[in-house]
Write a structure and sequence with these properties.
With about 160 residues, the chain is an all-alpha fold. Helices cover about 85% and strands about 0% of the residues. The longest helix is centred in the C-terminal third of the chain and has 49 residues.
């Protein structure tokens, strides 16, 4: 059964922006899950990675942002507590102290690298989404008569932004 292009756009919106599970989004639109997965793969093949955009939306979500900050803060607190214990350990051999410091340094570098790697692309897309959301809020407040046209324009434009690497 052929589905109109707008169903694909609606599915993308439900999955990416409303963060529904693929199965739930497909059921809501009356589209088989296999069709939804195929559309997602076809979009990916054309440079529109729904998962990356979905993650960026989540990154912009206050809960995810707060959780990420908390995880990093918790790691840094534990790292500092371990450093304090290492300073206070008077019976530790120089070799054990050097091994512990090397291990902690490696752990710290890997943790920070992970956050840096996660951050650039997702942050870029989170900023793009934030700008679009601010534009919509501005239009709602100042130019409500143009909202219908804006929605027609922004949905496909969002798909184009997702392709920008």
């Amino acid at each position: 059964m052929a589905h109109p292009g707008e169903k694909r756009t609606q599915l993308r919106g439900l999955y990416v922006y409303q963060r529904l599970a693929m199965e739930t989004a497909c059921k809501k639109l009356g589209v088989p899950r296999s069709t939804g997965n195929r559309w997602k793969q076809e979009a990916f093949d054309k440079g529109d990675d729904w998962e990356t955009v979905r993650a960026a939306v989540g990154l912009g979500d206050e809960n995810f942002s707060t959780l990420s900050k908390r995880l990093l803060e918790d790691y840094l607190v534990q790292h500092q507590a371990t450093m304090d214990q290492l300073r206070a350990a008077t019976t530790m051999s120089a070799r054990d102290r050097a091994d512990t410091l090397a291990s902690m340094s490696d752990s710290f570098n890997k943790t920070m690298a992970s956050f840096r790697r996660l951050s650039p692309e997702l942050n870029k897309q989170a900023v793009q989404l934030d700008v679009l959301q601010r534009l919509v809020s501005f239009a709602q407040a100042r130019f409500p008569q143009h909202l219908t046209a804006m929605v027609e324009l922004l949905e496909p434009f969002g798909e184009e932004l997702a392709k920008v690497k």
